[in-house]
Specification:
Layout lengths: L6 H10 L12 E2 L4 H13 L3 E5 L5 H9 L2 E5 L6 H7 L6 E4 L8 H8 L5 E6 L5 H10 L6 E7 H7 L10 H9 E9 L4 E2 L6 E8 L10 H11 L7 H9 L3 H11 L12 H10 L3
Helix pairs in contact: 2-3, 6-8, 8-9, 9-10, 10-11, 11-12
Amino acid sequence: MLDLSDLATVKRLLSKNDFKFSKSLGQNFLVNPSVCPRMAQAAFESGGGEGVIEIGAGIGVLSRELAKLFKKVVSFEVDKALLPVLSETLADFKNIEIINSDVMKADLCSLIAERFEDMDVCVCANLPYYITSPIIMHLLESRLPLKSLTVMVQKEAADRLCAEVGSRSAGAVTVAVNYYASAKKLFGVSRHSFVPSPKVDSSVIQLAIRDEPPVFVDDEKKFFRLVRAAFCQRRKTAANSISAGLSLQKDKVEEALEKVGFDLNIRAEKFSLDDFSAVYKNLEY
């Protein structure tokens, strides 16, 4: 079996298949041999150990580790140029299916029903930096029957995604993630673990999907419009940000904040998930 942690081996493999790295796809392949086993094990322990969806197979480093633990691996790889590479690196594994498609365009609900019948399913992936948040939010908002997401992301993104709602590091995406899942950091990954080496370090995080959100809102799209508006001008008060973001009169927003018992100088970064829910229920828009 090819040693995909050996840089010389990886370079020969890619050269043989005339592969060229694509900056537009954010391709950075892991060569640190300790990272993928830890990711796969974390996903296995959180997801029931039956089915797993990988997003971005790359050269198959993580795919192979997942296949050692899970009964079935379905891996998306959008770059057609990597298919001959994967046919070689994954030749010894019969429980991996590669889908040459963009996961954002896939019918994942149907795929899970067809490929993972009666299995517990999770996601494990080394996500491209440029599309980290869109992929995570797509998976969460789709309400797919998933146990967890174990993903590697840029360290800065990990800090934001796993921040406590109500802290300075929190943003709209933090609120959204906490609405759908419980997030935690697992471990850091140096930029030197990749080929080519990116300019920033990474972190592996895990999102355990909630059975039910911790707060009830009757219109999620409307609720998250409020959340995004609240963070659209972080240096301003919540009243000013919400007023501007939702095109509402400021006194109307202030009235809702006062009903909840907030000081009118409060900023959105101080709001807990319960606070956002309370403001939502007291504001007409």
